């Protein structure tokens, strides 16, 4: 779910009833106990989602009605798009310098002559610390673990992102390049 548009004022919880048709398209049937504005945004999110894999009955795709409890707490919101992006103290040059000085090329990768980019996503929290680092696209041979270690080294050295002048959590993605 993309929370790049911040239209919510309070936390909420709702039960969403929706149908995934035989073609994999989603239609929201009902949302209970929330404002029209929030209901409209949730409908947009559901209907803009990629095609779902429909249910199968007797080898034929069929429509299926589903329900899902949805909870939202604006205090824990993670943005992807913000007015002011997080910045590494000293800039991106300093960040890549940190990576190059501390990168330990994994033995397995050297032995197998592996090179490439490991894409890591992570959250910079309101205090400028790294949270929830994970490999989105790896190359294996120990490089994925090394990329995560490097991202963790940068924790606490970020200036947090801001939305409406206030620090917020922001999800980021960076490539870590492995080349012998």
UniProtKB/TrEMBL annotation:
InterPro entries (alphabetical): TonB-dependent_transducer, TonB/TolA_C, TonB_C
Protein name: Energy transducer TonB
Species of provenance: Rhodocytophaga aerolata
Pfam families: TonB_C
Domain of life: Bacteria
Coiled-coil ranges from the UniProt annotation: none
Subcellular location: Cell inner membrane
Domain TonB C-terminal: 90-180
Family: Belongs to the TonB family.
Keywords for this protein: Cell inner membrane, Cell membrane, Membrane, Protein transport, Transmembrane, Transmembrane helix, Transport
Chief place where the protein resides: membrane
Lineage, highest ranks first: Bacteria, Pseudomonadati, Bacteroidota, Cytophagia, Cytophagales
Mode of membrane association: Single-pass membrane protein
């Amino acid at each position: 779910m993309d929370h790049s548009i911040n239209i919510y004022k309070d936390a909420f919880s709702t039960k969403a009833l929706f149908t995934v048709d035989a073609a994999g398209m989603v239609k929201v049937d009902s949302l209970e106990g929330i404002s029209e504005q929030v209901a409209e945004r949730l409908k947009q999110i559901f209907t803009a989602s990629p095609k779902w894999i429909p249910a199968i009955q007797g080898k034929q795709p069929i429509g299926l009605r589903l329900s899902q409890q949805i909870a939202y707490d604006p205090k824990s919101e993670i943005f992807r798009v913000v007015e002011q992006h997080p910045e590494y103290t000293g800039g991106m040059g300093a960040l890549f310098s940190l990576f190059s000085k501390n990168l330990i090329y994994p033995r397995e990768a050297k032995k197998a002559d592996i090179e490439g980019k490991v894409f890591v996503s992570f959250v910079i929290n309101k205090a400028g610390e790294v949270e929830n680092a994970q490999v989105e696209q790896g190359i294996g041979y120990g490089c994925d673990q090394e990329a995560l270690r490097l991202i963790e080294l940068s924790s606490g050295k970020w200036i947090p992102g801001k939305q409406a002048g206030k620090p917020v959590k922001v999800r980021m993605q960076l490539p870590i390049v492995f080349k012998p």
